[in-house]
From TrEMBL:
InterPro entries: FAD-bd, FAD/NAD-bd_sf. Keywords: Monooxygenase, Oxidoreductase. Residues 19-358 form the FAD-binding domain. It comes from Streptomyces macrosporus. One of its GO terms (molecular function) is monooxygenase activity. This is FAD-binding monooxygenase. It holds the Pfam family FAD_binding_3. The keyword Transferase does not apply.
Length: 471
């Protein structure tokens, strides 16, 4: 009898022995966590001298500003580091229902408060980063080194595959060395030189999409008095075309409030106390002004500018440099007032971990395709919010006007319908897809609520006022 033919065995995926991560921010640390499951050794290279305790650092200029860990980001970090949220809360972070324990002002309308089950965490960026770094540093096969600068990748003679990186310690007289690696992940942030490196190696630069946001924001911290805000943990004012001003107040560690004031397209928050108070008084609700009037300042105001959101389309490249990935803000950076950066970075790390578990072959093409899908939602939300402003520079689609008119009515309706409010916040926190806002039942709710709202400008105490001239 003839022997039964057996299928040829599937070759084992090529294992990665040593991975290098450029940057020890949230994106780099979460990527290192993902790599640690399948790589024999992971080295994270950081330009800064990393502090031993939570502290702002030069390499993360936004670290002194207000940060919030969105509900989806909280779940992602707890998936990467089981027990992380309990540790963060134990370190002093606030934990609150994003609809039940907060005020949200959309187009000047106060979202109807109700328990939502959407839990967000208030903590400074240094605390979040410190907690993540401690968990990554404890991994037996991960090493965080620096301060050192990565000068570029080293490749095979045909420039098709990465074999390491050129590194120079940030010390006087330090010499350049080569660190061998078969996988390099660039998580160096918005200043990433990856497009230039690829071009130098004969590869194409990725195309980029840019949306000018022209954001200026000022952050200051105050001692938290539980009597303020009626005990609520936060409040947020989202800018809109009639009032390109916004802000937020958020409870964080050390019993303090972080307050941020934002402006777009020529509106710029002042940094003196009287000016900040006048600016807060021009917002649709009293929350931020209440804190500024009554709370004790704990530090000096800090200002930052963010010109534009940028998305690099590595997924569109016809040819990839094998063994070279880009993640975090180096892949896609968003208007920071939407608070999506840490969440998007953690989601990309989860994508990377899943792909590595399937095998290392053709990793760049697979990763950039999957990472592109992961950033689609935050990019749609951030770019769509910015493009509501006529001054914003970016590509608009043929149905954007119709969609914007519907969402304007939706925001007003959310002030009287808690279900609409919950869905809007679930989308903003990246727990539900944006398409959920257009579900037939929600469209019907928006139409039914039309007679109970005051139009696209707020009613009564929620009506937005004309901006006051700050001193």
């Amino acid at each position: 009898m003839a022997a039964t033919a057996r299928p040829a065995p599937t070759p084992e995926p090529t294992a990665r022995k040593h991975a290098v991560v450029i940057g020890a921010g949230v994106a780099g640390l979460t990527a290192a966590r993902a790599l640690g499951d399948t790589c024999e050794r992971v080295t994270v290279i950081e330009r800064d001298t990393l502090p031993d305790a939570p502290a702002a650092r030069r390499g993360v200029p936004q670290s002194r500003h207000l940060h919030v860990l969105l509900a989806r980001g909280a779940l992602a970090l707890d998936e990467l580091f089981p027990g992380f949220l309990d540790e963060l809360t134990a370190a002093g972070a606030s934990r609150a229902d994003t609809q039940g324990d907060a005020h949200w002002y959309l187009d000047g309308h106060l979202v109807c408060r109700a328990p939502s089950g959407l839990i967000a965490y208030g903590a400074s960026r240094p605390l979040v980063e410190h907690q993540i770094r401690a968990r990554v540093a404890a991994l037996p096969n991960v090493e965080i080194v620096g301060p050192a600068e990565v000068l570029g990748p080293v490749t095979t003679p045909d420039r098709g595959r990465v074999t390491g990186v050129r590194v120079r310690p940030r010390a006087d007289g330090a010499e350049e060395t080569v660190l061998d690696a078969d996988l390099v992940v660039d998580a160096s942030g918005r200043g990433s030189r990856a497009p230039a490196w690829l071009e130098e190696l004969g590869h194409a630069r990725p195309a980029s999409t840019r949306v000018r946001a022209d954001v200026v924001y000022v952050t200051r911290r105050f001692r938290r008095d539980p009597r303020l805000l009626d005990g609520r943990a936060s409040a947020a004012f989202v800018p809109f075309p009639r009032l390109p001003r916004g802000g937020a107040v958020l409870a964080e560690e050390h019993d303090r409030f972080a307050v941020v004031l934002t402006g777009q397209f020529g509106e710029e928050p002042p940094t003196d106390h009287a000016g900040m108070l006048a600016y807060a008084d021009s917002l649709p609700g009293p929350d931020i002004a209440e804190v500024l009037r009554a709370a004790e300042p704990l530090d000096a105001p800090v200002k930052m500018r963010y010109p534009a959101g940028v998305r690099h389309h590595y997924e569109r490249l016809d040819r990839h440099l094998d063994g070279f990935l880009v993640t975090g803000d180096a892949l896609c950076s968003f208007n920071p007032t939407y608070g999506q950066g840490m969440t998007a970075a953690a989601q990309q790390a989860i994508v990377l971990r899943g792909l590595l578990a399937e095998g290392a072959d053709d990793l760049p093409r697979r990763f950039f395709r999957a990472a592109s899908q992961a950033v689609d939602t935050p990019w749609l939300l951030a770019a769509g919010g910015d493009l509501r402003f006529p001054e914003a520079e970016g590509r608009r689609g043929p149905v954007d006007g119709l969609l914007d008119r519907y969402l304007t009515r939706y925001r007003a309706a959310a002030s009287v319908d808690p279900v609409l409010g919950r869905t809007f916040l679930a989308v903003a926190h990246m727990v539900e897809p944006p398409a959920r806002l257009m579900a037939p039942g929600h469209v019907l709710r928006v139409l039914r609520a039309a007679g109970r709202t005051g139009g696209a400008g707020g009613t009564g105490a929620n009506r937005p006022r004309a901006p006051k001239a700050a001193p």
